[in-house]
Write a structure and sequence with these properties.
- With about 625 residues, the protein is an alpha+beta fold.
- The strands form five sheets. The protein has a nine-stranded mixed beta sheet with strand order 1-6-5-4-7-3-2-8-9, with helices on one face.
- α2 packs across α6 and α10 packs across α15 (about 470-480).
- It starts with 5 loop residues before the first strand and ends with a helix.
- It binds adenosine-5'-diphosphate.
- Adenosine-5'-diphosphate binds near residues 81, 83, 94, 125 and 173.
């Protein structure tokens, strides 16, 4: 330690990430090389991008590359790049803290069990710290492009790191790993080459290493490029293996699991575009709040930006990948992107190709495939739906252009069976006489299934969609209809079920007969209901509550209120089942009894929807009194 060396302590979360990485990734420790090479490639990308406008930045050092230097004597492996480099402050900030506040929060929310799960840990972007999987100590020497100062950063991962002035011939970064005794393998030419071929072959900058061309005792070291060094997406579709896709996806997404599916496309003609889009197999824990796009934008093979939101709609934020345009200017900025017509074209392609991929998966159904090394029957679309279906619903709501294609990709629970059902299949199954798509919304599947509102529909053999996701009713409202069939809520307006003339007459007769009761009840419940009327949707229950045809449903009101919106309580319509024994007894009750029974019917209609009556104690009291009499 020299006089100018400063000691810093790691941010608390860094220590935790370090411990996690070292413990849980031990059996995958060769990934350290991929992570460090990936950082080096990013640093070169950034330099290359800045050099577009600042030509002097490259200086004499124009051949951008990554070098791997094996030093047997010192027992070190160095990953060197001539990329953008880091200033002293950047080193302290980037290598001593976990910058992304989301990662920090996620970290704190993980249970001990979850911390053993590498796929979850992958979400933190632990890249650099994986160096400690194989190294006792790590020294980083870096010089920022355009600066003549170099700095070194050194740590043994024991809670602190040191920063000191250093020497470095040109710009860029050296990451020097003092290998652990049991990791000395990585001094071997063959071992390093193998890991590079396996994980980093697609890296778009040359990875160079000295290799022995002599053989035997006669050593003759020569520099050679050990990766293909061409961007994966520029290769022919047939030239990229599944394994290369998996590796590329992992480096791109920092996900430890394999992608579920991908699409590799080229668009030629007025606009030229290449893209590689991946669907993850698992949603990140912050899927709903996360607003970033996972697609990187390149122009003519030059990296331009991460998180290119202009070319990917928000609802497609689960997609990971790259898009490489031949048409955008190299000096493209966010402002230009927002104005450029090419952006709209690219966005349309990204949406279109993703939808096509999803449609293919949906058509594929259940197939036998290899999942994490084992053969198993899976339905990839349903796996996707379980993880990301929520975002497709957002798409239906926000993206009018994609709505029709998205509607076919939606999946719902229904009264048919336990499975997921698409709207096309629902419509194909509709019996003669059914003209609408019926749905009922509730907080849980059992509540939806037991809902009194769907009794008559089920009796007629009409399938009912069971909507349990808070946003479902808005999605259905946005769609209005599918394949010419309107969506009809079982709990709103009049159901208008087809009926014979005889049925109609019988219903009118019942309405007449019950008119004194409905009027009397309307007075008794004037504070709470808008009207009381005879129902056509009940067969077994005595009463239910329904909303106006065009009003919000009770559940929509509740969802909004839970989200902190100020929504006035709307009075609903109480419907009575004229054939029910309880309803038939109503006419003979005295005023006090009638008031009690009315209140009970109202409260139990609420309960059947999963809503607590406003005065549960009063409900219990009335019920007990009734039982005592019986
Ligand atoms: P991530 O790559 O996910 O951001 P890392 O922990 O791998 O996370 O790296 C942290 C940061 O350190 C990077 O974002 C980058 O700013 C910086 N960094 C790491 N390696 C290099 C390098 N070789 N050259 C320049 N900057 C680097």
């Amino acid at each position: 330690m020299t006089a100018t060396t400063e000691k810093h302590v790691f941010q608390a979360e860094v220590n935790e990430v370090l411990a996690l990485v070292v413990n849980s990734l031990y059996s995958h420790r060769e990934v350290f090389l991929r992570e460090l090479i990936s950082n080096a490639a990013d640093a070169i990308d950034q330099l290359n991008f800045r050099a577009l406008t600042d030509h002097a930045l490259l200086g004499d050092d124009k051949e951008l590359r990554i070098e791997l230097i094996r030093d047997d004597q010192a027992g070190t492996l160095t990953i060197r790049d001539n990329g953008v480099g880091m200033t002293r402050e950047e080193m302290i900030g980037n290598l001593g803290t976990i910058a992304r506040s989301g990662s920090k929060k996620l970290m704190q929310s993980l249970s001990a069990e979850q911390k053993k799960d590498v796929t979850l840990i992958g979400q933190f972007g632990v890249g650099f710290y994986s160096a400690f999987l194989v190294a006792d100590s790590v020294t980083v020497v870096s010089r920022k492009a355009g600066s003549d100062e170099a700095w070194s950063w050194r740590s043994e991962a024991k809670g602190d790191f040191e920063v000191a002035p250093a020497e470095r011939a040109g710009r860029g970064t050296d990451v020097v790993l003092k290998l652990k005794d049991d990791a000395k393998d990585y001094l071997g030419e063959w071992q390093v080459r193998e890991v590079v071929t396996r994980y980093s072959d697609y890296v778009r900058w040359p990875i160079r290493m000295q290799i022995d061309r002599g053989g035997g005792d006669d050593k003759k070291l020569e520099w050679a490029t050990i990766n293909q060094a061409s961007a994966l997406w520029t290769r022919g579709k047939a030239d990229v293996t599944d394994q290369q896709h998996r590796d590329f996806y992992r480096s791109l997404s920092q996900d430890w699991a394999d992608p579920l599916a991908w699409t590799h496309f080229k668009v030629e003609g007025a606009h030229e575009l290449t893209g590689l889009l991946y669907l993850p197999a698992k949603a990140p824990m912050d899927l709903v709040e996360r607003r970033k796009s996972g697609v990187k934008l390149f122009v003519k093979r030059v990296f331009i930006m991460d998180d290119a939101q202009e070319i990917v709609p928000e609802w497609l934020r689960f997609v990971r990948g790259v898009v490489d345009s031949e048409d955008l200017p190299l000096n493209v900025s966010r402002e230009i992107l927002q104005r450029d017509a090419t952006t709209r074209f690219i966005k349309k392609q990204v949406v279109g190709k993703t939808l096509t991929l999803l449609e293919e998966l949906a058509a594929e159904g259940e197939t036998e495939r290899e999942v994490d090394g084992e053969k198993a029957k899976t339905d990839r679309y349903l796996t996707f739906w379980g993880e990301f279906g929520r975002l497709l619903k957002e798409g239906v709501y926000h993206d009018v252009d994609a709505r029709d294609r998205l509607a076919k990709l939606l999946r719902f629970r229904s009264t048919k069976d336990e499975g997921w059902h698409g709207l096309q299949q629902y419509v194909a199954r509709m019996p003669a006489g059914q003209t609408a798509i019926y749905f009922v919304a509730a907080d849980s599947l059992p509540t939806a299934k037991a809902s009194p509102h769907i009794e008559a529909l089920q009796k007629r053999g009409f399938e009912v969609l069971l909507l349990t996701d808070a946003i479902d009713e808005w999605v259905v409202d946005a769609l209005r209809s599918f394949d010419g069939k309107d969506f009809v809520s079982a709990a709103k307006g009049a159901l208008d079920l087809p009926e014979s003339d005889a049925d109609k007459q019988a219903k009118e007769a019942k309405e007449k007969e019950l008119a004194p009761v409905t009027e009397r009840m309307q007075q008794a419940l004037a504070e709470r209901v808008k009207t009381v009327r005879v129902t056509d949707r009940l067969t077994d229950s005595p009463a239910c509550l329904v909303s106006d045809e065009h009003g919000m449903s009770a559940r929509q009101e509740r969802v909004l209120r839970d989200a902190g919106h100020d929504v006035p309580q709307q009075k609903r319509i109480l419907e009575l089942n004229a054939d029910h024994a309880v309803v038939q007894k109503l006419a003979g009750l005295d005023d006090a009894q009638f008031a009690d029974w009315s209140a009970l019917l109202y409260d139990q209609a609420l309960l059947a929807e999963g809503t607590l009556p406003s005065d549960p104690a009063a409900f219990a009291r009335r019920l007990t009194a009734l039982m005592a009499k019986g």
